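Translate structure to sequence.
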């Protein structure tokens, strides 16, 4: 016999899956929060994101290395974050793999850095 007792719960879970899934990052505004540790500069992104969260896989001197400004630029289309791997892979949560997604401020810092010219600053 069907038990309809759980129907509302089922509807809720389905609704959450369809509408409420916070999958990926959507750009809400273009300013870092006041508490943000990371800033939209190469040095800050290197120190607060790349070194602690990416360089165990993207370090060294290999093809996928992000160990210099020059190397990181290989993943960037200057001025166009939406077309830059560096931004797309962190905003869709595919990098870093098997680890929590970067925070909104971290993703936004990468976005703004690329948008503002991906300078060696
Ligand atoms: C656990 C290891 C690991 C960590 C940590 C990691 N990556 Fe990756 N990353 C990979 C592997 C492996 C690939 C290649 C996979 C592929 O090309 O499909 C890759 C590919 C990439 C690419 C695409 C390749 C390219 O050069 O265009 C980008 C961009 C990238 N990672 C960025 C990051 C960033 C940014 C971080 C840190 C926030 C990070 N990754 C953390 C393993 C890792």
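Result:
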């Amino acid at each position: 016999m069907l038990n309809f007792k759980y129907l509302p719960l089922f509807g809720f879970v389905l609704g959450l899956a369809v509408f409420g899934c916070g999958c990926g990052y959507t750009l809400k505004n273009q300013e870092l929060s006041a508490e943000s540790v990371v800033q939209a500069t190469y040095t800050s992104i290197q120190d607060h994101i790349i070194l602690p969260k990416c360089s165990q896989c993207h370090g060294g001197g290999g093809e996928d290395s992000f160990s210099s400004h020059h190397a990181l630029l290989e993943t960037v289309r200057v001025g166009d974050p939406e077309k830059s791997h560096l931004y797309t892979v962190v905003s869709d949560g595919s990098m870093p793999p098997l680890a929590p997604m970067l925070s909104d401020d971290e993703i936004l810092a990468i976005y703004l850095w690329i948008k503002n010219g991906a300078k060696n600053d």
